[in-house]
Fold this protein.
Amino acid sequence: MLGRKALAVHRETGHRLGEARTLMALARAHRKTDSAAAELLRQQARDIFSDTGVPETEYEDPDW
């Protein structure tokens, strides 16, 4: 899956916002098929966004 490859690249290069965005995209992709995995990915993304100072209004998905 390309999302997992992107996640690995962001982690290897230390690109935290790219990592968070990719985690959020993976969470959305898993939302209908594996809600537990989706929630874990979403929480990981939210933690990174929060750690890097991104306001919640910038990354929260209103349709979640």
